Structure formats: C-alpha cells, structure tokens
Amino acid sequence: MPSNLFVLPAYGKAITLDDQGVFYVMNQYEDTIQNIIQLTYAKDEWCLMQLQHTSMADEYCWTVMSADSRYALDSMTSAQIAHHFARPEFAEPKGAWQVIRNQQYGFGKFTPLEGGEPIAYGLLMFENNEIKAIIRLHRMQADMMQTMTEETVEREVEFA
Fold first, then answer.
1. Cα-Cα end-to-end distance for the chain
2. Are 86 and 96 in contact (CB under 8 A)?
3. How many angstroms separate the CA atoms of 77 and 89, rounded?
4. How far apart are CA 115 and CA 120, in angstroms?
5. What are phi and psi of 44, to 5 degrees?
6. C-alpha 47: how far from chain center
7. Burial zone of 3 (CB within 10 Å; 0-12 exposed, 13-18 middle, 19+ buried)
8. How much is the pTM?
9. Burial, 9: exposed, middle or buried (Cβ in 10 Å; 0-12, 13-18, 19+)?
C-alpha cells in the first residue's frame, strides 16, 4: 500500500467558501482552455456547473454537472477517501485530499505535504462508485474572467 495518503482531517485543508469560483481545464497539447467549471455554494448545498454552448450561435449557459436530479455535492468520509486514493497511481506527490461529490462528479482539494507547494484542485469523475478520472483544475484569474464576462448576458430560466 502506498504511503502517500494522509487521512487526517486536521491536515487536509477543508473545502470552504473561499474555494468556490470558476476553474478551467487546460488542454496540455494545444495550450488552450478545454472546459470551464464553476463550484458554487447556495442554499446550503455545493454544486458543480459546466459552461456549455446553447443552440444559439455564440451563446453559452451554465449547466449542472450531474447524471440525475441529485446534483448536490456531499463530503466523502475519511474511509471513502482512503478507499479511492490509497492506490499506486496516487503515490506521488504526498499529501491529503478533501472531496465533495455527487453520483457522477466530484471536486477535490489536494493539500501537498511539502509546505511550499500550492494547493491543487481536481475534477473527479465516478462510474459505479469508483473514480474513473481526475482532471487538474486551474483557478481562473480575475483578468481572465473580465475578458470572458465583457459580453455576457444573463438570462433567468425557470424549470417546471
């Protein structure tokens, strides 16, 4: 069993309101943004959303990332984190994970053991209650957000 996993709630930095915001997935081969993800906290629930094209040209909307109506993200227990991350592919770097998830997607916060290393974020994808992929998320900086929101038009949609 790898010795990289530290399942100590006091060590891994909890996911807090400071972590909510907009993140992007980088295409490493083309050096372009591949996806834009938003972590939000509203009405006592965490939620992941993805920016997607609509049927209108040059129009985008936020869609909830969930396979069904159970979209809220719930904290994983220390035992669940140990089950998913105590595997050889997670042997390096050493650190602690905190994860919130729904049935299909999750948001992970990785606190490295080395004090000088920055906290990292990941989008987790689950299938049959097992992690199928972890994709590195990068926090979107304010100047990037300004460029994106200059032409943004908000519309409120009500579901029946």
1. 50
2. no
3. 20
4. 13
5. 60, 25
6. 10
7. exposed
8. 0.81
9. exposed
